[in-house]
Write a structure and sequence with these properties.
By secondary structure, this protein is mostly helical. It has one domain (42-440): Growth Hormone, Chain: A. It is 74% helix and 1% strand. It contains 19 helices and two strands. A two-stranded antiparallel ribbon has the order 1-2. Helix 2 (39-84) runs antiparallel to helix 3. It starts with a strand and ends in a 14-residue tail after the last helix.
């Protein structure tokens, strides 16, 4: 049995038989409580351990809250902010797509950078660097004066935003018992998704510049809270094992690449829903014959309300079913149904558009299960690399999806209802990719994470 130091995940010498950090603590405390220190000290020590773990979960959830606030803010303020820097209506969609693509490319690069660093240097230090970078760049976004400048700052913000979720999920997964870690990652994701709701209400009361500054200040404030949590014991263990850590090229081994690609594929529809169907909901509603004006910010807000509810339900469902795969399949089928309803509803009202956005969000609300599954597939020496790159590759996949969407709607064959027809083609493609990925996905519920990749 290993001896456990005070603090989350600190493990020193001995052989533990492959138990998780929390199981080591519980077993050590149990024997101490029943053999020497008595029931009351045992109860207090157990409560202290549980408190440290859930404090870590809480702080990771708040970090993701700020991450999502900043990530989605452009979708909420895009029309107002672009008008204020002189973009006319004819150029609005092209400028929006350029800025969104810049942010997503930044996240793709940032996911690779911060994921590798998290496996090499540790989870906590990388989260601190990620938060600092996106906080500063979001404040800078309040002072843009042109589309290229806007795109540059969103690109740099994207690099910083990329590091939060994957590293947070990795840390939470490594400090919680294998049978219940899904609850911890569900809390992180559900709290984070509500950041989009906060972004909408901040913008509702303040202008777009103040909303960007608020996001940056929240991130800087979060840095103070980060000092209260500690590093994963599993990461400390790998530092003494002499194994290669944070080498992205390791995922391209024959026995790993299919698992990595399957982990990415199942998440592709999520950002198709957010980045295309919801972001351009005003345009979709207008093309479908809707006469009421649609506020893009409200569409995003209701989508993220649905996403938060979906993340909570999918996380709990995966625990109840004891299966990540069956949960993901259920939500993929629901996504097919809601996307079809959304694209083929004519002359809808604003209220119906917002309802559909909420249900689209709920059906795509398996983000927590998706990222948790990716983290559980791989060993400790490359877990953060995978858990950080996978969601950001999914986000980055929005770039070719948007390019295809733009190319199709400008093609002469798509002139009847170019937005809807183009979205249908892109949607069929991303959903086919997702179901193919699900077929090859391995079940990971209850998997012991105390292992490394050779």
């Amino acid at each position: 049995m290993r001896c456990v130091q005070a603090g989350v995940g600190r493990v020193v010498d001995g052989n533990d038989g492959g138990m998780s950090d929390v199981e080591r603590k519980g077993t050590t405390l149990y024997h101490a409580g029943t053999s020497s220190i008595g029931f009351l000290p045992f109860f207090l020590a157990t409560l202290m351990t549980s408190t440290r773990i859930w404090l870590t979960v809480l702080v990771c959830g708040l970090g993701y809250f700020v991450d999502i606030y900043d990530l989605i803010l452009f979708s909420i303020v895009r029309i107002e902010s672009l008008k204020s820097i002189g973009v006319d209506a004819a150029s609005m969609q092209n400028a929006s797509e350029f800025i969104i693509n810049s942010q997503m490319v930044g996240m793709l690069l940032g996911g690779l950078l911060f994921g590798m660093l998290a496996d090499k240097k540790g989870r906590l230090s990388v989260m601190l660097g990620s938060i600092l970078m996106y906080s500063i760049m979001n404040i800078a976004n309040a002072f843009v004066t042109s589309v290229p400048m806007y795109a540059l700052f969103r690109f740099l913000s994207g690099i910083g935003l990329a590091g939060e979720l994957g590293v947070a999920v990795t840390l939470v997964a490594e400090i919680m018992p294998k049978q219940t870690r899904g609850y911890g990652t569900t809390v992180v994701a559900s709290m984070g998704i509500l950041g989009a709701v906060a972004a909408y209400f901040v913008h509702h009361f303040y202008d777009w510049k103040a909303a960007f500054v608020a996001g940056g200040l929240m991130g800087l404030g979060l840095l103070v809270m980060r000092v209260r949590i500690r590093e994963s014991g599993l990461f400390h263990k790998t530092r003494t094992q002499g194994v290669v850590r944070g080498n992205f090229l390791m995922v391209f081994r024959k026995d790993r690449i299919s698992t990595y690609l399957a982990s990415i594929a199942i998440g592709v529809p999520i950002w198709y829903v957010i980045g295309i169907l919801v972001t351009f909901s005003p345009e979709f509603t207008k093309e479908g014959g809707g006469m009421e004006a649609i506020e893009a910010g409200q569409s995003v807000m209701w989508t993220y309300v649905g996403l938060a509810a979906g993340d909570l339900v999918s996380g709990l469902m995966s625990q109840w079913l004891k299966s990540r795969r069956r949960t993901i399949l259920f939500f993929l089928i629901m996504t097919v149904c809601t996307v079809t309803w959304y694209l083929f509803t004519p002359a809808r009202s604003a209220a119906l558009t917002y309802l559909q956005c909420g249900l689209l969000g709920f059906s795509a609300g398996y983000w927590a299960v998706f990222v948790t599954t990716a983290a559980e597939q791989f060993g400790t020496n490359m877990r953060a690399t995978v858990a950080t790159t996978v969601p950001n590759v999914v986000r980055g996949a929005l770039v070719p999806a948007l390019i295809l969407f733009k190319t199709l709607r400008q093609h002469p064959s798509f002139q009847g209802a170019p937005l809807v027809e183009s979205a249908v083609v892109v949607g069929i493609g991303v959903l086919a990719v997702a179901f193919t990925g699900w077929f090859f996905l391995k079940e990971t519920f209850g998997k012991d994470l105390d292992f490394v990749e050779p």
